[in-house]
């Protein structure tokens, strides 16, 4: 036990064991009772000034206000031990003990407090017994407090307003006279200010009682019966006859919150509790703190006038909060399938079952009620909760145990001995073979070698009223199985089912509900489903999806029924989220070593949008699934809320779990903290929702749903995807509908109605600057305006070019408009492919040139990818020469160094010589002119050029060095400089295409060694398809669009054997002479793109060679590719386009 006092450091109370009770006196002394009773002083420093061992542990103890007496009781004591203080010095403290006998077990003890803090204390002791009586004790003055007399007693069962029905033992407490008087004064003041609900007669009656300065005894039972008595003349020095008279007897509605405090976990007859009450002047309420000694504290608030008014029918007393917890830090929380019950466990094996309930009249207020403690012991391996918390199964070191948790006291129902080799990794509840058979359950465990055991559990009947035959409970081994895994399993876990309704089809296939997730030491992750065959007494297992993540020695994992898996690396600092169904990495975040990930928990919204809670030592981050955005490369997951528990407790987080409906339970220290669905609208990704009020808390599910689900048809992402899918007619239809709804006031008489003109675009964008569209953020509305401008620009050229050209033109125009807001300095390989496969490249080239005002330099050429998609060799060389001229003239000095690489790639040394003759300002003019005058077909001068090239490399003049390598006719070295020193793949390809053509050996080598390798590393199928097409392997270009990246082994695949054999199942990117190492980012979700299916459908029948390549694709693979693309559209919010793919 640790005491924390203002201005003093924490101090451990020596000699105090667990199971203690403590109370304070007015002299800053603390009484602590457990196996012994101790008195501590805290004035100068905390020190133990008296201690006495007890024959049996104390359940409760109380010290009088003046520290003159201490009263203590044990669990089943009928005698109160009364300790009378003999000395008050701290050097030697002595007490004398006496006993107060009672007719039944004593439940609570309480000392009367004086009306004023500085008033002489007249000690009066109140005790309550299991016989529902309150006893009032006072010392006999003639014997100097050595003997005590019974001043009176109250029968709390005298008034029962609940039709005479027998109720459990009530909660009884004393409201001191000073608190009762203050509460009545506050009620009177409120009644004067406000019309109020309290009857005047009731208030006058309470004023009369308060004027007598009497203590008040209040009793509340589980039926809601409340009785109040005034205790007149109860003080020790009062010579008048002690009197008890009734104040009120009322029936309280909505009283379920008191049930756990009244019943407890032990026999309700001997349920110990302590109650304190005081009047809080800040809230003007009577605060009632009920401490159930089984570990629960309830805090209630009420107006004393409303509480005792017999005519008031609405809620008289309100539950403020419930405090409860363990005696040691929580290490594990296990929930049942529906999320209505959890079991929390500590390291020493203390297990408590909690149930979720919704308080009456407050539908949004959910309470986690402590149901009972399960005495399972300390050797628990795994736990599973059955039938909404009615039953709990523990997998221990030597047995499997079934507990009945329907009642206040958990009862052992069945036990089955356990004999296995290895450590059980999990305890999983399997799907019911027959849904209507609720009494039978099957649970399974798996060992690291893949072998496992299934037990059959038969629980007592509980749905039929009046039938609770515990003798029917049974627990026995059902069967043994082997998963047949090739690798050793590191861990197996049940999947998190929160928010997803289970669907049991009865079939064992990939569509069946997942029950478990496993992972190996090498990073192989599997989702598993199972089917119980009762007839043959066996369980069949099937891996529904799997992927090789490449993560070695995973430290933590969690899977959801949506086939999402969250994995944490061996240092517990890096989190990755995977879609195991599609083998894609959706999220990667390195939290650094300072933030150790300790827990992962999944839930989802009612429409199956995933939410992940990532637990750290003192805070929890909530990550929300986001719509895919392939155009802006937006994240698939984003943090939307952070729960910091340091504001509540200094204890670290042990574990957490989701309840039903999105409530998160966090185990911190010995406490459970419940966080509801309200989140701060100003945090992280939520702040991007400009069209909502982010200054007020928002609902978690509403926020997540706003980031997911179908987009409106006017959303810029939907319009972009319509463009990629070739749905230009949808935009024309939208325009026609607009024309019908609103007469054209902005068109000219001669204008073509079928064309979306720039005038229409300008008018529409002007409206967008004044009117905010629903369901769009401010940034999205700006993107829509850009899209409208781009569509109008492209529409004017649409009749003279094909769809691929229109796609390129649209997204290149968008790229130009957003260039200042994006990090990408060049177009993606998707847009390059559209231009590459367009038959309108001359129009596209002219468009790109005009966008650059006819001054295309290499920077702009690389940005547009023009030398990657131009097919005509003459046009390629002509445009390259334009770039060379613009590089020469880009500065006022007109430096020939800037254009040397380009003219030498064109083999136009003569033009370069002429430019050097004009560069009189350049100090290198003379030497360069003299060098260029030589014949570089001569090996001698080639060696000189090489020498100069290496000298320039040493001076880090890399582009000029590459030019001298070309002068020496060493194209391969020039390309290496572009690749390694300049890190410019496009420049390397461009100069090789211009210098030797597309079929040249260096060009082919770059594509084989560099481009394909890069495509494999990045998982870039757009780049791979372009590379294969450039290599003349058009069949492979088609297959590259549909086949995912595969791992490549040099002993299995090589360039030569692939060309000869072309095995059916070989990954596309095996067309490499040497193996490449795949980056984890090659698995990222952005490597998928539903637009791939558009290009695939175009190319598959374009030539005989592409048709041959498409014919090698398994029809099942092709169908799965289409289905996967439809799922991507759905995740993007473009579900209408996904449906269109199925036609």
List the helices and strands and how they pair.
Blueprint: E1 2-3, E2 11-12, E3 21-24, E4 29-33, E5 36-41, E6 47-53, E7 58-63, E8 69-74, E9 79-85, E10 95-101, E11 106-111, E12 125-129, E13 133-139, E14 148-155, E15 171-175, H1 177-193, H2 200-211, E16 215-220, E17 225-232, E18 243-251, H3 259-263, E19 273-280, E20 285-292, E21 296-302, H4 304-307, E22 317-324, E23 330-335, E24 341-346, E25 351-358, E26 366-374, E27 380-386, E28 391-396, E29 399-404, E30 411-417, E31 428-429, E32 440-446, E33 451-458, E34 474-482, E35 489-494, E36 516-520, E37 524-533, E38 538-548, E39 556-559, E40 564-568, E41 574-579, E42 584-590, E43 599-604, E44 610-615, E45 619-625, E46 637-644, E47 653-658, E48 664-668, E49 671-675, E50 678-679, E51 698-699, H5 700-706, H6 716-724, H7 728-741, H8 758-768, H9 778-795, H10 803-817, H11 829-836, H12 841-851, H13 858-864, H14 866-869, H15 873-888, H16 900-905, H17 909-917, H18 925-932, H19 939-954, H20 958-967, H21 971-981, H22 985-996, H23 1001-1018, H24 1021-1030, H25 1034-1042, H26 1055-1061, H27 1091-1099, H28 1104-1111, H29 1115-1132, ...
Helix pairs in contact: 1-2, 8-9, 9-10, 10-11, 10-12, 11-24, 17-18, 19-20, 20-21, 21-22, 22-23, 23-24, 24-25, 25-27, 25-28, 29-30
Strand content: 25-35%
Can you tell me the overall shape? elongated
Roughly what is the average pLDDT, rounded to an integer?
84
Number of helices: 30
Residues in helices, as a percent range: 25-40%
Largest sheet entry:
4 strands, antiparallel
Strand adjacency order, main sheet: 3-4-5-6
Indicate the low-confidence ranges by residue numbers. 360-364, 689-693, 735-751, 1045-1075
- Which class of secondary structure composition applies to the elements? alpha+beta
Oligomer: single chain
Q: C-alpha Rg, in Å? A: 40 Å
Counted beta strands = 51
Terminal Cα span: 71 Å
């Amino acid at each position: 036990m640790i005491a924390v006092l203002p201005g003093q450091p924490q101090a451990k109370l020596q000699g105090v064991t667990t199971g203690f009770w403590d109370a304070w006196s007015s002299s800053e002394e603390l009484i602590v009772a457990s196996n012994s009773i101790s008195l501590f002083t805290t004035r100068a420093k905390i020190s133990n000034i008296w201690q006495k061992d007890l024959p049996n542990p104390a359940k409760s103890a109380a010290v009088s206000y003046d520290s003159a007496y201490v009263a203590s009781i044990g669990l089943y004591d009928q005698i109160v031990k009364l300790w009378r203080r003999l000395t008050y010095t701290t050097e030697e403290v002595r007490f004398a003990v006496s006993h107060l006998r009672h007719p039944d077990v004593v439940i609570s003890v309480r000392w009367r407090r004086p009306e004023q803090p500085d008033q002489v204390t007249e000690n009066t002791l109140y005790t309550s017994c299991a016989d529902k009586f309150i006893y009032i004790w006072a010392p006999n003055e003639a014997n100097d407090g050595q003997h005590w007399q019974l001043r009176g007693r109250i029968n709390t069962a005298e008034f029962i307003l609940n039709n005479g029905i027998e109720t459990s033992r009530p909660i009884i407490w004393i409201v001191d006279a000073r608190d009762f008087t203050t509460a009545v004064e506050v009620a009177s003041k409120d009644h004067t200010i406000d019309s109020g609900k309290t009857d005047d007669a009731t208030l006058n009656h309470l004023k009369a009682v308060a004027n007598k300065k009497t203590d008040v005894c209040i009793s509340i039972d589980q039926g809601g019966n409340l009785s109040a008595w005034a205790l007149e003349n109860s003080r020790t020095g009062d010579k008048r006859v002690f009197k008890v008279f009734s104040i009120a007897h009322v029936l309280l509605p909505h009283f379920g919150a008191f049930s756990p405090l009244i019943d407890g976990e032990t026999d309700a007859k001997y349920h110990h509790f302590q109650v304190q009450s005081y009047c809080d002047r800040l809230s003007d309420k009577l605060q009632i703190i009920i401490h159930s000694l089984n570990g629960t504290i309830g805090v209630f608030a009420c107006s004393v006038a409303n509480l005792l008014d017999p005519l008031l029918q609405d809620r008289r007393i309100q539950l403020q909060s419930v405090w409860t917890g363990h005696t040691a830090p929580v290490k594990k929380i296990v929930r049942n399938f529906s999320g209505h019950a959890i079991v929390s466990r500590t390291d020493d094996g203390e297990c408590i079952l909690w149930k979720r309930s919704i308080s009456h009249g407050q539908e949004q207020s959910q309470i986690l009620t402590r149901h009972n403690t399960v005495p399972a012991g300390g050797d628990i391996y795994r736990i599973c909760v059955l039938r909404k918390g009615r039953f709990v199964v523990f997998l221990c070191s030597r047995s499997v145990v079934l507990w009945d948790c329907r009642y206040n006291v958990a009862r052992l129902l069945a036990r089955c001995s356990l004999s296995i080799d290895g450590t059980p990794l999990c305890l999983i509840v399997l799907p019911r073979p027959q849904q209507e058979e609720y009494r039978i359950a099957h649970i399974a465990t798996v060992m690291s070698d893949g072998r496992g055991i299934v037990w059959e559990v038969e629980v007592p009947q509980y749905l039929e009223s009046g039938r609770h035959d515990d003798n029917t409970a049974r627990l026995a081994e059902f069967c043994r199985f082997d998963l047949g895994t090739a690798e050793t399993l590191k861990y197996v876990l049940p999947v998190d089912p929160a928010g997803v309704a289970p669907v049991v089809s009865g079939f064992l296939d990939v569509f069946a509900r997942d029950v478990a997730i496993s992972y190996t030491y090498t990073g192989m992750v599997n989702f598993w489903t199972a089917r119980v065959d009762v007839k043959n007494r066996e369980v069949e297992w099937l891996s529904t999806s799997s992927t090789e993540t490449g993560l070695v020695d995973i430290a933590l994992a969690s899977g959801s029924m949506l086939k999402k898996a969250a994995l944490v690396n061996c240092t517990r600092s890096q989190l990755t989220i995977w879609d195991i169904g599609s083998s894609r990495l959706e999220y990667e975040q390195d939290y650094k070593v300072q933030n150790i990930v300790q827990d992962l928990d999944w839930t989802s919204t009612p429409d199956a949008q995933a939410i992940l809670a990532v637990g750290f030592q003192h805070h929890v981050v909530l990550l929300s699934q986001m719509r895919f955005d392939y155009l802006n490369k937006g994240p698939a997951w984003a943090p939307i809320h952070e729960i910091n528990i340091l504001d509540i407790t200094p204890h670290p987080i042990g574990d957490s779990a989701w309840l039903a409906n999105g409530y998160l339970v966090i185990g911190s220290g010995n406490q459970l903290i419940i966080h509801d669905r309200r989140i701060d609208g100003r945090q992280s990704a939520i702040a991007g929702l400009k069209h909502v009020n982010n200054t007020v808390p928002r609902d978690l599910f509403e926020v997540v749903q706003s980031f997911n689900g179908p987009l409106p048809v006017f959303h810029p992402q939907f319009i972009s995807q319509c463009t990629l899918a070739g749905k230009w007619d949808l935009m024309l239809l939208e325009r026609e509908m607009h024309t019908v709804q609103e007469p054209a006031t902005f068109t000219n008489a001669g204008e073509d109605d079928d064309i979306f003109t720039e005038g229409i675009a300008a008018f529409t964008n002007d409206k967008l600057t004044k009117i905010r569209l629903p369901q769009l953020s401010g940034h999205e509305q700006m993107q829509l305006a850009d899209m409208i401008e781009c569509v109008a620009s492209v529409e004017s050229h649409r009749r003279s070019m094909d769809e691929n050209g229109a796609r390129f033109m649209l997204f290149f125009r968008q790229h130009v408009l957003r260039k200042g807001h994006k990090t990408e300095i060049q177009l993606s390989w998707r847009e390059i492919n559209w231009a590459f496969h367009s038959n309108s490249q001359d129009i596209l080239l002219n468009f790109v040139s005009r966008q650059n005002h006819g001054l295309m330099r290499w920077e702009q050429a690389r940005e547009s990818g023009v030398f990657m998609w131009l097919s005509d060799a003459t046009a390629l060389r002509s445009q390259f020469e334009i770039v060379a001229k613009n590089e020469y003239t880009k500065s006022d000095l007109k430096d020939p160094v800037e254009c040397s690489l380009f003219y030498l790639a064109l083999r136009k040394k003569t033009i370069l010589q002429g430019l050097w003759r004009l560069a009189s300002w350049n100090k290198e003019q003379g030497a360069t002119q003299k060098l260029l005058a030589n014949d570089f077909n001569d090996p001698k001068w080639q060696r000189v050029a090489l020498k100069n090239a290496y000298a320039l490399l040493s001076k880090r003049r890399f582009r000029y060095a590459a030019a001298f390598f070309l002068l020496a006719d060493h194209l391969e070295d020039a390309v290496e400089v572009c690749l390694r020193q300049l890190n410019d793949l496009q420049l390397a390809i461009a100069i090789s295409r211009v210098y030797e053509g597309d079929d040249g050996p260096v060009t082919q080598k770059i594509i084989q060694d560099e481009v394909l390798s890069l495509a494999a590393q990045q998982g870039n199928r757009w780049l791979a398809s372009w590379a294969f097409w450039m290599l003349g392997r058009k069949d492979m270009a088609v297959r590259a669009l549909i086949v995912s990246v595969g791992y490549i082994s040099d002993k299995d695949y090589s360039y030569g054997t692939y060309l000869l054999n072309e095995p059916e199942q070989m990954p596309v990117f095996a067309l490499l002479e040497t193996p490449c190492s795949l980056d984890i980012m090659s698995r990222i979700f952005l490597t998928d793109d539903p637009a791939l299916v558009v290009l695939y459908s175009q190319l598959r029948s374009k030539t005989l060679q592409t048709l041959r390549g498409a014919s090698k694709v398994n029809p099942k693979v092709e169908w799965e590719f289409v289905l996967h693309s439809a799922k991507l559209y759905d995740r993007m919010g473009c579900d209408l386009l996904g449906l269109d793919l199925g036609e």
